[in-house]
Amino acid sequence: MLPANDRKGPGVATPPDRRAIILDKAAELFAHKGIAATTVREIGDAAGILSGSIYHHFDSKDTIIDAIVSSYFDDMLAGYAEVLRSEREATERLRGLIRSSLRCAADHPHASELYQRDRNHLRETDRFAYVGEAVASMRRTWLSVIEDGVSAGAFRGDIRPRVLYPIIRDGLWHTVEWFRPTASYGTDDLAEDCFALFHQALAVPVPAAPVAHAAP
Known about the structure:
- By secondary structure, the chain is mainly alpha-helical.
- It contains 8 helices and no strands.
- Helix 3 runs parallel beside helix 6.
């Protein structure tokens, strides 16, 4: 049981997490303006605090970027690992990777845009070397699922997996730029539609049944 002074009665709001607000506002600014063009002062203004107060939570702008980006990729890789643990068939793994990617993008919309905008900066900075490693791991996961599907006869083998992967990846990641979930059509609904689209492109074509002709 919580101590009496820690218990909140009905209608008593919990103060917002200042660190979380800073990260959210910073991610939005980085996504829209880019890392280089965003200043700590602008982050402070957006978060409603003095820029100097940010240093009570983060020692530099790079530390803020690190917190945003590492959380995004940690969640993405964890989601992929769960799909591989829970699914065995390539088709269901494809469905799972699509759903997991879109859920993660929905949970970290600005981080996804930040990466797409400044990926070269992140990959070329020693502090963010893990970004390249995470992206390479994600690529290996997708390629292995596609290749396993081809080997099992579930996916067509006439299109190179290394060509398919970036098409699928970019199609999913760029949804943060236009997709806004509603009560009637959420992220998982979008995932099912994306799966239907990509699976139709990947699936081995089923030969059409011969047309029966009426006897003369």
